[in-house]
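Worked example 4.2. Below are the chains of a multi-component assembly; read each line carefully before continuing.
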Amino acid sequence: MNGVHDMGGMQGFGPVRHEKNEPIFHETWEGRVYGIDRSLAAFGKWNIDAWRHHIETLPPADYLKFSYYEKWLAAIEQRVVQYGFLSVEELETGKAAAGFRKATPALTVEVARNYARNIPSAKDPSIAALFRVGQQVRARNINPIGHTRLPRYARGKTGQIIRDHGVYSFPDSSAAGTGSKRQHLYSVRFRAGELWGPAAAPNSYVHLDLWDDYLEFAKS
Amino acid sequence: MDRTRRSFLGTAGLAAAGTVNAQEAAHDHEHQAVPSDPTLRVKALESLLVEKGFVDPAALDALIDRFEHKVGPRNGARVVARAWVDPAYKRRLLADAPSAIAELGFSPYQGEHMVVYENTPKVHNLVVCTLCSCYPWSLLGLPPVWYKSSAYRSRAVIDPAGVLREFGVELTDDVELRVWDSTAEVRYLILPERPVGSEHLSEEALAALVTRDSMVGTAKIAMLQTGEKA
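Applying the procedure described above to all two chains together yields the following structure tokens:
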């Protein structure tokens, strides 16, 4: 999706503001949002790609205005309704509907203490790599309407594969719930000049991690 | 533009405030006066989810405690210090980061697959996530606000030298600049240059020098720290 979340290369946001001795959470509610999010994720109703897409599909003006945890909160409020944890009425009134059946938390205290989100091993010899280290590739010029991890600034640009990371779920299909479509993921090096034009520094490079389905062969 | 966190409060005075400090002051004042909207929304959300049995508040406490007190940049600093004092470890770290990191007892928190790159006098590496805020949680903890800001995410790929200058890092023209945009489940940690004059320091003392920002690539490490804390 060509959303505002795809920020690489945008201009006009001003200087990067660095906060000294920054707390982990600026407000108590931010930590609670973090914990609620992880607790609900433990029910396994969405994967990380769908999770990211929930955030990306917030209204663009809200996305730009909200802080990080405000985005999480807004996404959670939508998600709890969409996946049947709470009703709109319950959220609005703050009162649980009469006669509900009490659930069991999916995330126990024990698991929370050492919480980890596992992703499958990247080693899978049964899935062949379509590209090899050293090859020149072009990022496809595609504009998927759903979730994608191919940023706009790299589309149509040519780079070189410098590393094969192994096999990973393909985020576009994974987020859409149409299967993990596991395939090879590569580190692709782009010259800054290829991405940004002749004014870019000659010895500057940007590397992206890109899947087979994002790439096509390019002449070297 | 990174007034975002405060703008939700909807206070006219905040939008007009010119500096971060002024906003902080206005924000703090505001916060003491009335609970912010998110505070109320989160309270309602949490109490409903707890009442209906979906969330255990003690589990929330444990999750929060982990990142407030247990997992943070000190983990990454231990990896860096070990690499500085042990050349064989450094080779393993650069060749196979997950195994080398596991040697020190750290496990991948988000299931991320770590890759480590080394800063040298001739190569400077910088990490960003332009699409969201991917960050090596298991070694650096939760990311700071600047890393998640629109300004950093947009500019780190198109104007990395300018961003570095704002962080006080001036690179000469002969230094190759390598930006790593974390577009997948691979997470990057930068092994900063060991500061000149640190030869006599113990591994523990070296770890204390290593800042969070230096492991993202937005800072260099000096022997005399200038007040920046990880």
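Take a moment to check your reading of the output against the notes. Confidence is low (pLDDT under 50) at residues 1-32, 225-230 of chain B. DSSP finds 14 helices and four strands in chain B.
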